[in-house]
Amino acid sequence: MKCSDVSAFKIKVVGIVQGVGFRPFIYRLATSLNLNGYVVNLGGSEVEIHVEGDRSKIDVFLTRLSIEKPPPAKIMSIEIKEVEPQCFTSFKILKSGKGLSIRSSIPPDIAICPDCIAEIY
């Protein structure tokens, strides 16, 4: 599929989405649908997803994102914006950037998942 034929969306998910395996879940979901792009923590309680590919697969991605999320995750809001494709050739989990938000919804009674520990070390 040519880049000009690809749909692309930037998605911001707010809620309990850090320290609960949310980014690895997004990675597995996107790659299972042959979508490209990235997922990254924005800090606080926000995750940004950029997803590109066939529009029907993106629609499936958006539906499954809410239904199949990890059990400890809680989505408070999702903002979806159609954007220009960047012609990504794979889907990646980007390193967390500097916090853009002062809110935090990391639940204190949830242990850090193995994927998050591996990212640190």
Automatic annotation (TrEMBL):
Q: Which InterPro entries match?
A: Acylphosphatase-like_dom, Acylphosphatase-like_dom_sf, Acylphosphatase_CS, Carbamoyltrans_HypF-like
Per its record, what are the GO molecular function terms?
acylphosphatase activity; carboxyl- or carbamoyltransferase activity; zinc ion binding
| PROSITE patterns found in the cross-reference section | ACYLPHOSPHATASE_1, ACYLPHOSPHATASE_3
Q: Which SUPFAM superfamilies match?
A: Acylphosphatase/BLUF domain-like
Task: Domain (Acylphosphatase-like): give its ranges.
Answer: 8-95
Q: Which superkingdom heads the taxonomic lineage of this protein's source?
A: Archaea
Task: Give the E.C. number(s).
Answer: 3.6.1.7
Q: Which Pfam families match?
A: Acylphosphatase
UniProt keywords (A-Z) are: Hydrolase, Transferase
Query: What reaction is this protein's catalytic activity?
Result: an acyl phosphate + H2O = a carboxylate + phosphate + H(+)
Query: Can you tell me which residues form the catalytic site?
Result: R23, N41
Q: Which GO terms describe its biological process?
A: protein maturation
The family this protein is said to belong to: Belongs to the acylphosphatase family.
Q: What name goes with this protein?
A: acylphosphatase
* Species name: Ignisphaera aggregans
Organism ancestry: Archaea, Thermoproteota, Thermoprotei, Desulfurococcales, Desulfurococcaceae
